[in-house]
Every structure is written in C-alpha cells, then in structure tokens.
TrEMBL record:
Organism from which the protein derives: Ectocarpus siliculosus (Brown alga)
Ligand binding (FMN): 89-91, 118, 140, 168, 242, 264, 302-306, 325-326
Lineage top rank: taxon: Eukaryota
Name of the protein: Glycolate Oxidase (2-Hydroxyacid Oxidase)
Residues the record lists as binding glyoxylate: Y36, Y142, R177, H266, R269
Keywords, comma-separated and alphabetical: Flavoprotein, FMN, Oxidoreductase
Pfam families registered for this protein in UniProt: FMN_dh
The protein's required cofactors: FMN
Length: 378
C-alpha cells in the first residue's frame, strides 16, 4: 500500500478547476492513498469548514477602474515571486508521483512561485534544491525530541539555500484520520523513506511509530515559545510560525522573534473542531499589527484555498499570500511536474480574473472593503 495504484493517463486539458485534479486523482491513487490525502481528523468538521467559511464570505466588487495591466508580483523576504500563491510544505510527495518533491520544485520554478519543503519529504532537502536551483524554497521544520538532529536539519537547510524556516507548531500530535485506520493505511511503501532523517539509530522505526500516532517518540512535546530564540541562535534565516489560529498566539510568535506567521489548521488534519483559517485571519492580522515589532510582519494563510476568489478574499483580509496543500498533491498525482504547473496556472488565471472584476490592478489594491467579514477583526 502507498503507491499510486493505476497509471491512468489524464488529459490535463480536462482539469479546468483545482477540484478537477482531485476528481481525476481518485482512480489513479486508489482508495487508501486518495483518502490519506483527502481526509481530515475525526468528524472532519474543520476540513469542511475550511471551504464553507470561504463560501460564507462575499465580495463587494468595484467598477470602472483601470484593470488593463494587472500585476500579481510580490516580494517576500527579499525574494521576487510571480504571484501570491505558494505551495504548502507537506510530506511524502513520492506517494503521488515517482519524481516526488523534485517534480513539484521544478513546477514551482517554472511558475516563478515558492515551494515549502517538508521535513517529512521523500527526497532529501539537498536533492530538492539540486533538482530545481531556481525554485524559491522555504524549509518546514518540526522540533524533535532529538534537539541535535533538529539543529542539524536546520543547518543543512540554510546551507542548501532555503530562504526561510517554517516552524510547524500545530501538530505536536498527529490528528487521528479515521479513514487511514479503516483503510489500514500505515505509510510508506518499500523504497520510499522520509529522506531528511538519518537511516541509522532506529530513526526509521521512530518515524514509523509516528505514522502509527505515537508521535511523542519523535516530536518534542515540551517545546514552547522560548524555543524560537533557540532556533534563531542556530540560523540567520527568517523563522515563520505555521499553524496559528488565535490573536494571542500570533502575538506570542512575533514577540518571540518570528519574522512571519502562517494562519493554518493543517488543512483540517490537526485539531478537529478548530476554527477555519479564513475566519481566523482578521483577528490575527489586527493583533500582529498592534505589536510594536509586528507592523511589517507578513501573514500567510493556508487550509481550504481552492479558487482565485479565495485568494482575493484572504489578501483582502490582510494576507500577503496563500499556500496550497492538497491541490499540489492531486495535481502531482495526475500529471507530475506538468500537472502542478497546470494547477498553478489555473489559480493564477482565476486570481487575475477576480482582480479585474473587483477593480484591482495591483495586489495593494485588494483592500478590506472588498469583502464581507463577519468577525471584523475580532
Ligand atoms: C500536510 N501538511 C503538512 N504540513 C506541515 O507543516 N508538514 C507536513 O509534513 C505536512 N504534511 C502534509 C501531508 C498531507 C498529505 C497533507 C494533505 C497536508 C499540511 C499542509 O502544509 C497545509 O497546511 C494544508 O494541506 C493546507 O490545507 P489544504 O490546502 O490542503 O486545504
């Protein structure tokens, strides 16, 4: 179990929306692997809310503005990117396609956008960098019980040219995805490894245990905000905190020295019942801007983004950019590098069309008055 079951050739031109990739990926991946990616924790309340919350929010478009020259480019931590839509750091790309993270990195390089590379990648962080040197890359880190190993991985990522560290803080334990239990899906097929871990010292066993929900053997359950200072003592890279849903935690992250915040509930795969990411965003933005050092801290969002209009809504509420998780997996399964490229170009076109229809020529023109927001900044 754990590899795409059938090689079903897909005509990529039949993928018109991001959800089409998910539909097309289903027969390719087979039930267990498809559900491993698609499913969420427990009752999947948060998984479903991530989409529903976007649909409860409406656009208030402005007319008769010049939109003949739309510009989606932005600069983040000194890097120029082609659009405010990035790929979320997420593990195990080789379960979707034999080229794994290398194919995703090449697609992001072609699209001129940024890829988050997971600590749980199936290609080593150095090999991902070598596969697509032009790809803008952030490295996603978990704080492990083994602090030396954590520090070693962090140092390797800086050396390999990653431009920021995303510290994931919402998964000190993995959410229980009941679909995986029912399907007896327990991870990696022969020949696929979590390539950033050493092969000696029983790490494969500990990683295997983590898949079986015994994450306490792998992750440090005693990590606190003071560990941001520890990470900063090891690297000069900006540190983003991924998995923030409350104003209080956003303030703690910035006060602890984080250079950025990613509002996320791990795509509904961490705590079920937590608020959707889009409804968490405005209070986080307001709180971060109220911290003296927070005026220019970029705030990102993932979890549930599937349309150009979703991107526009998130930007209107103060996000600098959004990230995509499952659409990357499904497009990778459907068409490898080409699939991910097509997926990214679809959402790019959708965002451009949404901006034109809202009267926005540049990203700075996307302001709060373009959306109905029921939380009004908390
Ligand atoms: C993830 N995600 C994730 N996040 C992270 O910080 N490290 C990781 O290794 C992974 N691995 C992972 C695997 C799979 C199969 C999925 C679906 C997700 C979470 C990911 O970065 C992102 O937060 C969500 O996927 C965003 O939600 P959407 O776009 O999938 O709705």
């Amino acid at each position: 179990m754990g590899s795409p079951e059938k090689k079903v050739p897909v005509d990529l031109s039949r993928c018109i929306s991001l959800d089409d990739f998910q539909r097309q990926a289903k027969p390719i991946l087979g039930k267990a692997l498809y559900e491993y990616v698609a499913s969420g924790t427990d009752d999947e309340q948060t998984l479903s809310e991530n989409r529903q919350a976007f649909k409860r929010m409406f656009l208030l478009p402005r007319m008769m503005r010049v939109v003949s020259d739309i510009d989606l480019r932005l600069d983040v931590f000194g890097q120029r990117l082609s659009m405010p839509v990035f790929v979320s750091p997420a593990g195990v790309h080789k379960l979707m396609h034999p080229e794994g993270e290398c194919a995703t990195a090449r697609a992001c390089a072609e699209a001129g956008t940024l890829m988050g590379v997971s600590q749980h990648a199936t290609v080593s962080l150095e090999d991902v960098a070598a596969a697509a040197p032009r790809c803008a890359r952030w490295f996603q880190l978990y704080i492990l019980k083994d602090r030396e190993l954590t520090a070693g991985i962090l140092r390797r990522s800086e050396k390999a040219g990653y431009t920021a560290i995303c510290l994931t803080v919402d998964s000190v334990r993995f959410g229980s995805r009941e679909a995986d239990w029912r399907n007896n899906f327990n991870g990696l097929p022969p020949g696929v490894t979590l390539a950033n871990y050493p092969t000696q010292d029983g790490y494969n066993d500990r990683v295997k245990d983590a898949w079986d929900q015994n994450t306490e053997k792998l992750f440090d359950e005693r990590a606190t905000w003071s560990d941001i200072a520890w990470l900063k003592s090891l690297t000069s890279l900006p540190i983003l905190v991924k998995g923030i849903l409350t104003a209080q935690d956003a303030v703690s992250a910035v006060e602890a020295g984080a250079s950025g915040v990613i509002v996320s509930n791990h795509g509904g795969r961490a705590l079920d019942g937590s608020l959707s990411s889009i409804e968490s965003l405005a209070p986080v933005v307001k709180a971060v801007r109220s911290v003296p050092t927070g005026a220019n801290v970029p705030i990102f969002l993932d979890s549930g983004v599937r349309r150009g209009t979703d991107v526009l809504k998130a930007l209107a509420l103060g996000a600098t950019a959004v990230l995509l998780g499952r659409p990357m997996f499904f497009s990778l399964a459907v068409g490898g590098q080409e699939g991910v490229q097509r997926m990214l170009s679809i959402i790019r076109d959708e965002l451009e069309a949404a901006m034109a229809l809202c009267g926005c020529q540049r990203l700075q023109d996307i302001t709060k008055d373009l959306v109905t927001d029921f939380r009004e900044g908390g």
